[in-house]
Amino acid sequence: MKYDLNHELEQAKDEIEEAQELPEAIRMRLNSTYQILENNPPVQKKRRLTGLLMGVVASVLLIIGSGFISPVMAEALKNIPIIGSIFLNDGDEGLKTASRQGMTMDIDQSVTLDETTLRISELMYDGGRLSMVLTRETENGENKAFGSWWDEMSKNNEINTIRFYADGKELNLGYGMSMAIGEEKNSVILTLSPDGLPDEFDLGVEVWHIEKQQPFTFNIPVKNSAVDRVSIKSEEPKIHDNIHMSISSLKITPATMQLIVSISGKPGQDLKELDQSVPDKYKTGGFINIDYEVVNEKGELAQLLGGSGGGTDGVLKTRYMYEPFPTKPKSITIRPYVQNSGDKIYIPELEFHLLVEE
After folding, report:
1. What is the mean pLDDT of residues 14-26?
2. Are 174 and 130 in contact (CB under 8 A)?
3. What's the pLDDT tens digit per position in 131-145?
4. Gap between the Cα atoms of 270 and 20, Å rounded
5. Of the candidates 303, 318, 254, which has an alpha carbon nearest to the alpha carbon of residue 126?
6. Which CATH number does 230-355 carry?
7. What is the reported pLDDT for 308?
8. Rounded Cα distance, 267 and 237, in Å
9. Across residues 203-220, what is the average pLDDT?
10. Alpha-carbon distance 263 to 234, whole Å?
11. The two domains 86-227 and 230-355 share their CATH topology (first three levels equal)
12. In whole angstroms, what is the distance from residue 253 CA to residue 227 CA?
């Protein structure tokens, strides 16, 4: 049977509009989504339907689960065709939660260079991390897997393949990229771990096109979407084996836990002197290399998503991102450890216990 997308969209739209108890915020997002879809060619409409409806489905799922609406209304909402998102379908548990709770943004920005189009369709910023969906498409439809294309673009390229800006100022941040997303392998989830950014700013993204010798350039207004958020830090540093360790920040939102740990030595020591003064058991390749477990009061261990670090002015600062716990924790324990032949060697003298605000 031939699939008539226009008919399905109109039918779902009519069912939703007839439901009077639908909250105005959801109605507005639905109307906006349908307007965007109606202004696109049929081929693009099919390809982009899933991404464009992600914000709507997140809000709809919450309303259905809350019992806020009648069973008839809930059934009508469930019949919206092909709702979902890459965050919801292929993201980590934090991104899935963010999508369900309506914390994501529908971006739908695209730039075309030399018959290649890059598109940013979804974005989530909660103060602890910034994640976006980046998709590559070609006019002839022969879309190479994003990872293969990215490797070609990055290979022997003296220019940074990708740069990020906040209100015009370049961000010196690492990023993580998940490859081979969904049935079409031409999308990735790109994630940054920012610190010190405001709740609202203009995000600039430049992806270098090596053949054209110019960038795909995006400018996106970004807003912190985490209403329920907690930020705590250690009151006093822990000191052991000349390691002065403190928790600079632990940010907890429904989508992310971001941990920032600072390590220094004795007053006045630079990073080289710090490395020399610390026992070798804490080092890898001659440099301090300590990892951290994040555990709640139930003994549950948070899933590590990634991390990065660097040092300046005698302080080694590392940032880690973890998936959030299923429920907001009452307390958090930070367990430092080092790897030794595949085993974790914990450092109890540097362990932190932090209470989480109600």
Report:
1. 53
2. no
3. 999 998 888 777 677
4. 66
5. 254
6. 2.60.40.1640
7. 84
8. 13
9. 89
10. 13
11. yes
12. 8
Cβ–Cβ < 8 Å for 74, 236: no
Type of residue at 116: T
- Which of 16-30, 187-201, 249-263, 298-312 bottoms out in mean pLDDT, i.e. has the lowest? 16-30
Lowest mean pLDDT segment, chosen from 22-31, 34-43, 124-133 = 34-43
Quick check: 240 and 258 in contact, CB under 8 A?
A: no
Question: In this structure, which long-range contacts are made by residues 284-287, counting pairs with CB atoms below 8 Å and at least 24 apart in sequence?
Answer: 284/339
Coil vs helix vs strand at 20: coil
pLDDT score recorded for residue 48: 46
Residue 354 has pLDDT above 70, yes or no: yes
Residue 317 makes CB contacts below 8 A (sequence gap 6+) with 248, 260, 261, 262, 263, 309, 310, 311
Q: Which helix (H) or strand (E) holds 353?
A: strand 352-355
DSSP class per residue in 288-335 = E--EEEEEETT-PBPPEEEEEEEEETTEEEEEEEEPPPSS--SEEEEE
Please provide the CATH number assigned to the domain covering 86-227: 2.60.40
Cα–Cα distance, 322 to 332 (Å, whole number): 13
Domain ranges of the chain: 1-84, 86-227, 230-355
